[in-house]
Specification:
The chain starts with a helix and ends with a helix. It is flat and about 165 Å long. It is built from 30 helices and 2 strands. The protein is mostly helical. A two-stranded antiparallel sheet has the order 1-2.
Amino acid sequence: MASAETAAEHERILREIESTDTNCIGPTLRSVYDGQEHGLFMDKLEGRIRNHDREIEKMCNHHFQGFVDSITELLKVRGEAQKLKCQVTETNQKLQNDGKEVQCRLQQRNIATTIDKLTHCLPGTNISPSICAIISDPAVFSPRYYPALRTLEQLEESCLPQAGSYRFCGIMSENIPRLRTHIRDVSMSDLKDFLESIRKHSDKIGETAMKQCCSSVQVMCLSLTHIILQIPGAQDLVDFSPVYRCLHIYTVLGARDTFENYYRKQRRKQARLVLQPHSNMHETLEGYRRYFNQIVGFFVVEDHILHTTQGLVNRAYVEELWELALSKTIAALRTHSVFAFICFLFLTEMDIIHPLSSPLSLQGYGFPVNQLFDMLLEMRDQYGEILLKKWNQSFRQILDQDNYSPIPVASPEEYQRIAGQFPFQDPELDKMPFPKKLPFSEFVPKVYSQLKEFIYACLKYSEDLHLSSTEIDDMIRKSTNLLLTRTLSHCLQYAIKKKNVGLAELVQIIINTTHLEQSCHYLEEFISNITNVPPDTINATKLYGTSTFKDARHAAEEEIYTNLNQKIDQFLQLADYDWTAAQGGAQASDYLSDLIAFLCSTFAVFTHLPGKVAQTACMSACKHLSTSLLQLLLEGDVRQVSMGALQQFNVDVKECERFARAGPVPGFQGDTLLLAFIDLRQLLDLFTQWDWSTYLADYGRPTCKYLRVNPQTALTLLEKMKDTSRKNNMFAQFRKNERDKQKLIDTVVKQLRNLIATNQA
C-alpha cells in the first residue's frame, strides 16, 4: 500500500515538474527531498527524461526532409530576385537619359521668359532693397535717410512706370508717402536722441573745451569747429550728424521753418535747465564744476551749430541766451559763495570761474565776460580762505604720514633730487660718502614744496585780473603770511600736541623747523622771481616764516620737557619701597635702573638738537626726577620710614647723581647737573649722618652745610622715622640707648617746630 502511494506521489511530482514554470519549481523539488523515497524518485525521473528524448528524436527525423526542401527553394528565389533588380535599374537609367533633353528645353523657355520680365522691373528692384533695408533697420542705415528720399523720388517718377502694372509696383506706389513720413519721423527721433545726448554730456563737452582753451594761447585763434575736431575724444561725446541730417530732410520736405522753431524751442528749454543751480551745488567741488561745465558745454554746442549750419540759429539768438546765462551764473555765485568756506571747495573759483572769464575760454568765441571779471575780484578773499583750508588738509596729511626719521640717501642722484625740492646746503655732509642721512625728515621738502605750490596757486588766480606786478606780489606775500602764521602754525601745533607723539618725533620736529626757518629767505627770492618785484622794494611785505617756525620749535621743546617728565612719572609709579625695611640694599632699585637707562637712550637721540635745547631738557628732567623722589619720600601715604628704607633711597639717589656726573648731554660746566639733586643730597646726608647738631647750629647761615634742607621737610621725614622707632621698639623702651635716641628725636622735633614757628613769624 505504501509503495503504491509513493509511486502515485512520484507520478504527481513528475507531472508538476513537466507542467510548472521553472521559477515556481522550488516547492515541488523541496517535497521530493523531504520525502522518504528519494532514490526511487530519481530513477523515475531519469526514465521519464529518456522517454522525452526519444520523442524529440522522432519529431526531428520526421521534419528534417521538409526543412531541407525549403532551404533549396529559397536559394533558387534569391537568384531570380537579383536578376529582377538589375533589370529595374537598367530600365530606370534609360528613362532618365531619355528625359534630359525634354527637361532642358522647358528650363530654357522659363529662363527666357524670366529675363524678359526682370529687364522691365530691374530699375525698381535695384532701388527697393535699400529702401527696405532702411525701413527694417533704421539704426544701421540712419545716415542714409536723406539719400533715401532722393531714391523714393526716382522710384516714383521713373522706375515704377517702366516696370509695368504689376501688383508689387502698385503696392510700392501706395507706400512711398508713408515711407517719406517714416523717414521724417525717424530722423526727428534721432534729433531728439541727439538733444538728450548733449544735455547729458554738456558738462564733459565744457570740461574738454576749457582744458583745450587753457592749454595754449593759440587756441584763442581757433574756431569752435577746429576745437571739436582737435580735442581727443570730443567726437565720441558729440556727433552732430543727426542735426545736419534732420535739417536736410525737413528742407527737402519743405518744412525747414518747422524744424528751426522746434530746435530753438528745445534748446531754450535745455538752457533754462542748465542755468538752474542745483539745491546742493554748494556742497561739493564737483557741484560747482559740473554747473559751469554744463554752461560752457551748452554754448560750445550752440557756437558749433552757428558756424556749421546756415540759419538754424543766428548770432542774436546765441547772444540772448548768453546774457541770460551771465545773469543766472552771477546770481548763483553770489547766492552760494558763502558756503565755500564750509564745504572746503578747493580752488572752486580758480578751476571753474577763472576759465569762464579767461580770454582763452568763452571770450575766445566772442562771448563778453566783463561781469565775471568783476565777480572774480569780489571773490578773491574767499578764494584765499579756500586755499588756506585746502593747504591745511595737505599739511595735516604730510605731518600724519611722516615717519619723523632722517632721510636716507643712497646715491648722488637721490641727493640731487632732494636738493632740487629743498634748498639744503651742508659742506660737511657733502664730504661724507654714500649712503648717508640728511638731518631732516621727508616732511621738510614736502612742506617746502607745498609752500611753493601755494604761491603758484595765488599767482595763477591773479594772472588775468589786470593787476600790477606790485599788487600781485603784495597779494601773494600777504596770503603766504596767512598760510605760515595761521595754517601751517596750527598744523605744527597739532602735530606737536597730538596724543602718543614720542620724544624722537618731537626731536625731529625741532630739527625740521630749524631747517625750514633757514629756508625762509629762499621763499622770499622765489616770490620775487615769479612776480618780478625785488624783495627790497619800499613797502614790500616781509614773510613771517621765521617767527612761525621759531614758535613751533619752542612749542616742541616745551612738549619734550613735558613728555620727559611724564615718562619719569611713569617709571616712578613702579617704585615699590619697603618703608619699614630694617636694612637697605647695595644696588639701586630696578625701576630706577630702568629709568636711568631710558634717560641715557633718550638723550643720545638729542645729538642733532641745538645744545641749549638738549641741556635744558636734561636739566629739566633731572630737576623733575629730584622733586618727584622727594615727594615720593614725603607723601602722606608713607606714614613710616625706617633707617633701612632711607638707606635704600640714598642708594637710588646716588645712582641718579652718578648719571648726572657722567654728563648725558655735553655742554654742562663742572657738576652743574648735580645741582638738580642738591636738595635731596643734603636732606639724605642729614638723616643718614644724623648730624642734627650741625644743622640746628648753622641754620640760617650762608655757609650752612645743609642750606637746602627746609625745616618743614626735615620735620615731616623725622616724624615718619619717629613713628617707626616707636613701633619697632615697643618692647625695648627700657633700653638706655633706645631711650636716649627717642629723647633726641623728640628734642630735634621740638627744635624744628620752633624754627618753623620763628620763620613764619
